Amino acid sequence: MNQATPAPAPREREAVPVRRRPRSPRGGQRELVATLVPVGGAVLALLLLARWGSLIPGFVASQEVIGWSDWLLLTLACLVCLLHRPFSSSSLGLGALVVPAALLELGGAGAGAMVAAAALLADLIRRKLRKHSPIIGPERRRLVRSLENAGALVLAVLFAAVAGALALPNALEAPGGAEGANPLRRLVVAGAVYGLALLAVQAADKKLRRPHQPVPWGALLKPQLFDLPAWAAGVALALVVQSIGWPVAAWLLGAFALLSLEIARHALRHGISEQRIGDLERLSRASRRIAGDGREQGLVSVAERIRIECTNVIHFQWFQFELLQRDSQYSSWWAGPDRRLYEGQPEPPPVPPPLPGIHKRAAWRRLERSLETEDQLLGRLTLWCDPRQLENDSVTLLDTLLPQMVASLQRAVLDREAKEDPLTGLAVRRVLEDRLLKSHRRCLQEGSTMAVVMCDLDHFKSINDTYGHAAGDQALIATAALLKEAVGEGQLAARYGGEEFTLLLEYTDGDEALQLAESIRRQVEALEVVWEGERLPLTISLGIAVFPDLHAKTPEDLVELADEALYEAKDHGRNRCLLHLGRGRFRTVDGDTVTGAGDSAPAKPPQLFA
């Protein structure tokens, strides 16, 4: 993995990441157990009760042979009602309306099988209808999640059926059931046990998956407030079946099912509308954040903004932003799972990391987008996404956000072109003048120091005349790269004009500036710039002026003093650096003091005038 230094980008405000407990090696085993308990328990309970359910008084169906038409009718009604579960897909919702009648007509095992089939089909239909909606679970374990929910519901219904059967009066003395007995008590007890059993199964599931976290009882109790009234309505419907028979009850059940279907349709449309409104708001906020606050911003800052907004609209693990440079090469920034921005090329693993539970082996899904205007390619954006966690809607949101990314990147590129010299990449003179003014004001307020270093390549005209202007350009580019690296972050290297460069060194005194200038002189002298097989002879002269050591009313005065030191360095033989001491005196790197043309004339004796 690249160990590059993080790019110096200003961090934008984003959601504070939740500190999660590191996953233990047994986390996957807990997920597997949490999946197998409801599914395996429901299958085993159905098989056992279908075989030996007749041993429980009052548990068998009201008919000796269950008709498939009755089973299909009740399953279809339960399926339609289960389409509307507003609080949790792991509860019955309006489907609880059908279960009491199913307990009386189909018995415990038949009702459990009905609930299992209806829950699985309802989950399948809801997922098909909501494939463009973000309500799918974050891990996209479709079949596994549906099986877990169906298993939990079947266990709760079977517990309710057994408890209701045992709650009949004199049930132990009536092995064949309690025909003719009032079923109200049985269904009320079954409803109470159903709620408790479902609550216990869901709490056990939460504890198995996250043993270190408390059980969210409030979230688990909320669906019960919807299931229990539906169960009460189902008890009334079951009593109607017992009193006046199925024909009238079937009409009532059909009316409830159609009402549930219409409610589910409206809820789905409402949810999609809310999601679209939320997406538009997110896109609007993302566009404003990418555009920035109107102030000048660097390319690294734009890359960081793009990364942050990609995080807000799509789930990805690795990020790469590439910017096309003037030489047709790409500068690259990347971020990994730690979400920190680095310079260089990313090295993601071959496949996504494993997720807890049961998952199909997946390869990366790479989303590659070109950032371009109508006539210009600016850069590229690449995201490495885990397909198990990727939603199609998020890809659409990312594509919708691309034009704003391109506009913000284009503004940053234009801003860079206005600030940087096109040949050397150093700051232009306008940027230097603005920075000099700010630094001078700060020194006046704080009493700090600043140094200006004027640099000029020696005999540059002869290089152009001998080797050509293309060779001179290569010499300027190499020298500029050396200067930029020498001053480092926080200082400024600018092209003053022609073969002249200016360095602004803030919080730097004369000795430090002189030592840096000498280091630059030696590096330029040793610089290997080869043109057509021949090394170009490069040397540089430097002049330094420091404020407030020298009295400079304006930044321009300080530049003139540094320029004066530069010309003195050239007059004293070139390939040297001099520090301006004032009054025509200059100091070399060895500590010697030399005088120049600006030295003051000797004082004359006073004269008397008549």
Sum up the structure in keywords.
rod-shaped; 14 strands; alpha+beta; single chain; seven-stranded mixed beta sheet; 610 residues; disordered N terminus
Could you write a compact summary of the structure shown?
The protein has 15 helices and 14 strands. With 610 residues, it is α+β, with helices and mostly antiparallel strands.
Query: From the helix content, strand content and strand pairing, which structural class follows?
Result: alpha+beta
Report the C-alpha radius of gyration, rounded: 40 Å
Unreliable spans are 1-25, 134-140, 170-181, 293-297, 598-606
Percent range of helical residues: 40-55%
H/E topology pattern = HHHHHHHHHEEEEEHHEHHEEHEEEHEEE
Strand order of the largest sheet: 7-8-6-11-12-13-14
Number of strands: 14
Arithmetic mean of pLDDT = 78
Total helices: the number is: 15
- First-to-last CA distance: 89 Å
Largest sheet: 7 strands, mixed
| Silhouette | rod-shaped
Query: What is the strand content?
Result: 5-15%
Description of the molecule:
- The protein is of the alpha+beta class and 610 residues long.
- The protein has 15 helices and 14 strands.
- Strands 7-8-6-11-12-13-14 form a 7-stranded mixed β-sheet, with helices on both faces. A 5-stranded antiparallel β-sheet has the order 3-2-1-5-4. Strands 9-10 form a two-stranded antiparallel sheet.
- A hairpin with a 2-residue loop joins strand 12 and strand 13.
